[in-house]
Amino acid sequence: MKIVILGGGPGGYEAALVAVELGADVTIVDRSGLGGACVLWDCVPSKTLLSTAEVVTWIEQAESLGLASEQPRIDVDLPRVFERVLWLAKAQSEDVQEKIERAGVRTVRGTGSFVDPHTVAVDGGDRISGDVFLIATGSAPRELDTAKPDGERILNSRHVYDLPAVPDELVVVGSGATGAEFAHAFNRLGSHVTLVSSRDRVLPGEDADAARVLEQVFERRGMTLVKNARASAVRRSADGVEVELQGGSIIRGSHALVTVGQEPNIGELGLENAGVRVGDRRQIPVDGVSRTNVGHIYAAGDVTGGIMLASTAAMQGRIAMWHALGQAVSPLRRDSIAATVFTDPEIATAGLSEQAAHERNLAIKVLSLPFATNARAKMVALEDGFVKIVASADSGTVLGGTIVAPHASDLILPVSVAVHSRLNVAQVAQAFSIYPSFGGSIQEAARRLMG
Question: What homologous superfamily does CATH list for 335-450?
Fold first, then answer.
C-alpha cells in the first residue's frame, strides 16, 4: 500500500515509522525539516530555554542548602543561549531525518497540495499518488489584526530566538501554556515581566489549585500579573511598546510577546480538491481513529484543532496507520491524555481534572497532598507544589491526577499509566515506591484514597 504523509512533525514521522514496520510504501512531503515546528521552533527550543532558566532557581536555592554565603551574579549571554537552543533543535531534526531514512521512508522537500483525492502536487510540480493520505501539517502562531508582530519589539513565540539581549520589560499577552512558559523563562533570565490574562487566573485551562500555586510563585519572583484584562491592541512606541487593554488603560514595556493560540496550517493543502471537510475554526475534523470525512484521508495533530501536543499528534498518527493498514486499534481516548506546562514548578496532568469530573456529574473522591510533607522535597528545600488524585467514588478507579513540582513531567507517568489501564487506587498504593522520593507522594495519596 502506498501512503503519502503531508508534514514531518511528530504526527507525520511517528505515523511513517508505524506504516513502514507494517510493510507500507511511505513518502513524507515536508517543507521545513523533519520534526516539524515542534522540534525546530516550538517544543524543543522552548523547553531547552526553560532548562537554562531552571539553573537560576538552582543558584537561588544554593544558600538555603549551605552552599553559598551570598547570591552570585548571573550574566546572561542571550545570543549564546539561543545558539545552543537552535543547535539542539537542528540536531534533533537531523536525528529524526536519519531515523526515518534508516527505516526506509522517502522524504520529499516542499509543500504538498491535493489535486484530486488520490494525488498531491509538490510545490505545484511533481505529483505523488497514494492509496492512503495523512495530513499532519501542524499549526502556526495566531496573529491579531491589532497586534501584528514585527519580529523586533512585537514578537510571537518564534521570534524570541532572534532577540539580541534579555528584554528589560517584557509584556506577555496571553496566559495559556505558551505565555506562562515564556513569562517564567524571561523572568528567571532577568526581565521584568508583566503577564496579561483575559481570565481571572493564569492557565485557565489547568487545575485551579495548580494555577494558584504558580501565580504565588510568579508574584514572589517579582512578576506582575494583570488578570481579567483583554488586550485590544499592541503597537510600537518611541522606545518600546504599548499594550492597550479593553477599557483604554495602557501597559508599557520594552517588548511585547503575543501568545494567543495557534491556527491549523491548512491554507495551501488544496483540501477542496480532495473533498475534505474543514471546520468552523479552520480545523480538519476527524473521528476516533483520525479519519476525515474522506475514508482514505486521515489527519493528525494540531491541524485537527484538538489538544495541541506533540504526544497527542504522535498517537493520532500511529492510530491512523494502524487503522488504515488493518490492525486492531482502539480509538483515541481524549480523557486519558497526559500534558505538562513547563514552568517552574511544572504542572503535569493526566486524565480528567477535578473540574471536568464535576462537569460530567461523576461521583468522585479527590485527595491533594502537598509536597511540603514529602521527605525528599524537604531535602531539596521544595515548598511549593502537590499531588492530586481524582478517583471514582464507587470503584476507586483512577480517573485523573495533577502534579505540581519540578520535573512533574517525569512524575506524571505512573498516574498516566493508572488512567490508561483503569487501575484503582488500591493497585497504585500496593505497588512499590522508593523512599525517599517525590513519587512516594503519589503512592501515599492513593493509599489515603483507599479508605
Answer: FAD/NAD-linked reductase, C-terminal dimerisation domain (3.30.390.30)
Q: Give the H/E segment covering residue 235.
A: strand 231-236
Summarize pLDDT for 272-316 with one digit per residue, the tens. Answer: 999 999 999 999 999 999 999 999 999 999 999 988 999 999 999
- Specify the CATH superfamily of domain 154-260: FAD/NAD(P)-binding domain (3.50.50.60)
CATH number of 2-141+263-332: 3.50.50.60
CB 228 within 8 A of CB 145: no
Pairwise CA distance, residues 80 & 84, whole Å: 6
| Sheet strand arrangement including 106-109 | 106-109, 25-30, 2-6, 132-135, 297-299
**Quick one: average pLDDT of 319-327?**
97
What is this structure's pTM? 0.94
Per-residue pLDDT at 58: 86
Q: Residue type at 401?
A: G
Task: Tell me the backbone φ, ψ of residue 404, rounded to 5 degrees.
Answer: -115, 110
